[in-house]
Write a structure and sequence with these properties.
Length: 459
């Protein structure tokens, strides 16, 4: 039997898509930078269905690319060229349980949208601690797999801090499940923690136990014009424990205004704008140019969308997601224009974590500008993958901020859990020249690892 027949038998014909017109959208990422056809798209509705997909793919030696909302920005959610992969879409695993009154926890299916989890928490008088502009499409499984950050990290921490336990299907089809949610549990290795940020390379997350926080009323949202990033940091220093602290640059604000028609938010044009959300009115100098209005969030949240809307005019952005120690933000921003010249460059981000999204335009697919920007961040002790993950965009540059020993340990974990490189090969870890790439690559060259033979075949 073919992979497709096995999948149809397990999931039903309606949930196995092979028509290229229908699989096309599953093969292209949100930015349009990465695109390759999926051999087949499988849409299981429960954990047993995910097990069946993983087992069938393993039997036929076909890689599995797990996809949630496909809003990821580093190319990890779509197949690589020539991979002939099965895309395992989780969007039907979309149940969201009630908030447990005693623990404040809830369990969500991996395919539930972030917005649906936020809504369920709200209905119980609680708050889910992660928020980002792609909330209506991004899934809980995707946010766990990328350890997504967003605009509330300074208040609640990133996704890792919200996860109590994970259920996942491993590459051999076994299920590990930690959804019980005891308040304390130090029993051995933290497998759930290992799966957070694993970008579909160690297992397919099927459900997650999440903590929620007591709901609070709306904070005060203030936009403040700044001469430079150090002035923005000074405002942040005067307002410790903000609910959000986001940064925009004049060029990005102009893009957003062009696309949305929003009016100028302040009386003057400023090179840097700080969006501060605080419990009460913020502490600011008397001469600060500032505006208070909850709608100010639109100027910040619509940056990614504005760039995508203008894609035919601007071209596909290369999205770099770096974080710098606060005292290095100024020098990084000062050196960035010379690093990215002649490419138009737009920057915005999450100031509280020193996280800047550097969007470089008019770059060729393998342009050295990506590495130059990431090297600059690394040279100042920063991160090259602050919240979007590594994906395929940065796998080859892991060595910029991870030692040989760390990369070797990551490889050992990958080999232990997915010895044949079935799950998302090419993502997160650079290919291994000594081992000839993933098991799937080797199978294609004729040196078949055992699992690529159909166990039901005679002999
Ligand atoms: P996908 O894009 O489908 O997948 C992302 C990665 O996770 C892939 O490697 C995929 O294989 C893996 N994966 C997905 N589901 C599973 C699963 N169930 N099990 C195992 N692996 C899985 N990110 C931030 O961190 N902060 C932001 O502020 C932010 N803002 C954004 C705003 C916009 C407008 C957009 C388009 C994106 C933004 N992102 C942001 C990026 C993106 O939304 C996040 O990375 C999100 O976590 C991806 O979720 P997803 O369901 O779309 O995952
Ligand atoms: C953001 O904070 O706006 C997101 O991470 C998305 C992006 O970088 O485009
Ligand atoms: Zn971000």
């Amino acid at each position: 039997m073919s992979l497709e027949s096995d999948l149809r038998e397990a999931l039903g014909t309606a949930h196995v898509i092979t028509d290229p017109e229908l699989t096309a959208s599953y093969g292209t990422d949100w930015t349009g930078r990465w695109s390759a056809p999926a051999r087949v798209v499988a849409r299981p509705a429960d954990t047993a269905g995910v097990v069946a997909v993983v087992r069938a793919a393993r039997t036929h030696g076909v890689p599995v690319v797990t996809q949630g909302g496909n809003t990821g920005l580093v190319g990890g959610s779509v197949p690589r060229l020539g991979q002939d992969a099965v895309v395992l879409s989780t969007t039907r695993l979309d149940t969201v349980g009630d908030v447990d009154r005693r623990s404040g926890q809830l369990t969500a299916g991996a395919g539930a949208t972030l917005a649906s989890v936020q809504q369920r928490a709200r209905r119980a008088g609680r708050t889910y601690g992660v928020d980002l502009a792609a909330r209506d499409s991004a899934t809980i499984g995707g946010t766990v797999a990328t350890n997504a950050g967003g605009v509330r990290v300074c208040r609640y921490g990133d996704t890792r801090h919200q996860v109590v336990g994970v259920e996942a299907v491993l590459a051999d089809g076994s299920v590990v499940s930690r959804l019980g949610g005891p308040a304390k549990d130090s029993t051995g290795y933290d497998l759930s923690g290992l799966l957070v940020g694993s970008e579909g390379t160690l297992g397919v997350v099927t459900a997650v136990r999440l903590r929620t926080h007591p709901a609070t009323t709306q904070g005060t949202v203030t936009l403040i014009g700044c001469r430079d990033v150090d002035e923005a940091l000074a405002h942040l220093g005067a307002n410790p424990n903000p609910w959000a602290a986001e940064v925009m640059l004049a060029e990005g604000l102009d893009l957003v205004r062009r696309v949305t028609g929003l009016p100028a938010p302040l009386t003057r044009n400023w090179p840097i704008l700080l969006l501060l959300e605080t419990a009460d009115l913020p502490s600011l100098p008397d001469d600060a140019d500032a505006a208070v209005d909850p709608r100010i969030w639109e100027y910040r949240e619509r940056h990614t969308e504005a760039m995508a809307t203008l894609v035919t005019e601007l071209g596909v952005p290369h999205k770099m997601d770096v974080a710098l120690p606060p005292d290095r933000l100024g020098v990084f921003l000062a050196e960035l224009p010379a690093t990215t010249r002649p490419h138009p460059t737009y920057v915005w981000g999450h100031l509280a974590e020193g996280n800047l999204h550097v969007n470089v335009l008019a770059a060729t697919p393998d342009d050295p500008v990506d590495e130059a920007v990431l090297r600059l961040a690394a040279s100042y002790g920063g991160s090259i993958a602050a919240e979007h993950g590594v994906g395929i965009a940065k796998a080859h540059l892991l060595h910029l901020t991870r030692s040989e020993a760390e990369i070797a340990a990551m490889r050992a974990v990958k080999r232990a859990l997915d010895p044949d490189g079935l799950l998302n090969p090419g993502v997160l870890l650079p290919r291994e020249p000594d081992r000839g790439g993933s098991g799937v690559d080797r199978a294609r060259r004729g040196t078949l690892p055992p699992w690529t033979r159909d166990p039901r075949a005679p002999g």
